[in-house]
Design goal:
Number of domains of chain A: 1
Distance between the termini of chain B: 17 Å
Largest sheet of chain B: 5 strands, mixed
Strand content of chain A: 25-35%
Largest interface: A-B, 74 and 84 residues
Number of helices of chain B: 3
Shape of chain A: globular
CATH class of chain A: Mainly Beta
Number of helices of chain A: 1
CATH architecture of the domain at 61-223 in chain B: Sandwich
Oligomer: heterodimer
Radius of gyration of chain B: 19 Å
CATH topology of chain A: Protocatechuate 3,4-Dioxygenase, subunit A
CATH topology of the domain at 61-223 in chain B: Protocatechuate 3,4-Dioxygenase, subunit A
Number of strands of chain B: 14
Order of helices and strands of chain A: EEEEEEHEEE
């Protein structure tokens, strides 16, 4: 068996491959409830992370020519990012052996940046979704405060916001498969 | 039945730790808590869809607007497989790099080395049905960075790969053989297992080299593999 190639940092110059249209996952005409997801990223000193490449990925709706499934956005000088996408629906559960409990609507989020030798992966859930209470991944987190680091708050009828902290007291829960 | 084969765990020491004090920028950016281990679900095993019609290839970085970039022309060829040696077909690879002088065409790069009007430094290729890819570029130069006194990054090309499941997402760097800066580079050295580290170094390959035209390098990439069958426990 071969071993997977080592990750290396994306560095500060990844914008050479940046295409700002990638932040809009609906740009190829996908149909559904369009939402905006905004957020901020801060470091262990509370400073804005201004050079990150933020990616979201969602398995619902399924990716096709009208919906790439993946979006990418830069963080700006204040550490802010913004995506436009289709609101995901419930997602099938992990496996029969885990009871196949459906997953609450969520998007995967991955942060690449200078100073990160490996990307940081986690999920964004939507505050107030009834399925959050039984979601098999959220249920792995006992501490309610830690669980809240994954809940985007509604800031309008179709807009959601999540502040992400890479390090410190309010550190976001990051995940690894 | 929606279960898909889960990904195998990462082999210890084969990936760099985000807490790597020799690389200064990691200090305030690495999480202090260990990651939450989660099972593979469709969010991790499904993949983005990049139609080549909507994400056009750019396979020759060495020419811009019909004009040849300065530097040593190179051909890079390789194969993308998973840990089970299965090829990853039709997957998108993004590449970016400094010019031959060691300068990025990026507003944040203030290194006192010349920009090249005929070189921007970004590319995009797709693997073929058997996982092979190839692109043409110029050899990137080394450049200083401020990580420690007299710090220089070895020559490298940045790679971004997506694979056929989102948990395979990989950003990495390809290095060049015989580079004297490699044993001094905290980013390269951050991967503890030497064999894993050395697979980031491309091989010079005379069969890829094109006579009278360009040197050839071989760089294979292995993405995370899945268990053989969906029913195995992970």
């Amino acid at each position: 068996m071969a071993i997977a190639t080592a990750s290396q940092t994306i560095g500060p110059y990844w914008h050479l491959i940046e295409d700002p249209t990638w932040s809009d996952l609906t740009r190829f005409g996908a149909q559904g409830d369009v939402i905006e997801i905004t957020g901020t990223i801060t470091d262990g000193a509370g400073a804005s992370v201004a050079d990150a490449a933020v990616e979201i990925f969602q398995s619902t709706p399924a990716a096709d020519d009208s919906f790439p499934g993946l979006g990418r956005a830069r963080t700006d000088a204040a550490g802010r990012f913004l995506f436009r996408t289709i609101k995901p629906g419930p997602v099938p559960g992990p496996a029969p052996r885990l009871g196949n409990v459906p997953q609450a609507p969520h998007v995967a989020i991955v942060i690449h940046a200078r100073g990160l030798l490996r990307a940081l992966a986690t999920r964004i859930y939507f505050d107030g979704e009834p399925l959050n209470e039984t979601d098999p991944i959220l249920s792995l987190i006992d501490d309610p405060a830690a669980r809240r680091t994954l809940l985007a708050l509604g800031t309008g009828p179709a807009s959601w916001h999540l502040d992400i902290s890479l390090q410190g007291d309010n550190e976001t829960v990051f995940m690894e498969v | 039945m929606t279960e898909t084969a889960p990904f195998q765990p990462i082999a210890p020491g084969t990936q760099p730790a985000n807490d790597t004090p020799s690389y200064g920028s990691t200090g305030l950016r690495h999480p202090k808590r260990p990651p939450l281990r989660i099972p593979s679900t469709i969010t991790e095993t499904a993949a983005p869809h990049f139609s080549p019609a909507l994400f056009p290839s750019l396979i020759d970085l060495s020419v811009l607007n019909g004009r040849q970039a300065l530097g040593e022309r190179i051909i890079v060829r390789g194969r993308v497989t998973d840990e089970n040696d299965r090829p990853i077909p039709h997957t998108m690879i993004e590449i970016w790099q400094a010019n031959a002088s060691g300068r990025y065409d990026h507003p944040g790069d203030t290194h006192d080395a010349p920009l090249d009007p005929n070189f921007h430094g970004n590319g995009r290729v797709f693997t073929d049905a058997d996982g092979w890819y190839q692109f043409v570029s110029i050899k990137p130069g080394a450049y200083p960075w401020r990580n420690h006194p007299n710090a220089w990054r070895p020559n490298h090309i940045h790679y971004s790969l997506f694979g056929n499941g989102f948990a395979q997402r990989l950003i990495t760097q390809m290095y060049f053989p015989g580079d004297p800066l490699l044993p001094l580079d905290p980013i390269f050295l951050a991967t503890p297992v030497e064999a894993a580290r050395n697979r980031l170094i491309a091989g010079f390959d005379l069969t890829i080299t094109k006579p009278e035209w360009a040197l050839g390098y071989r760089f294979d990439v292995v993405l995370r593999g899945r268990h053989a069958t969906p029913m195995e426990t992970q």
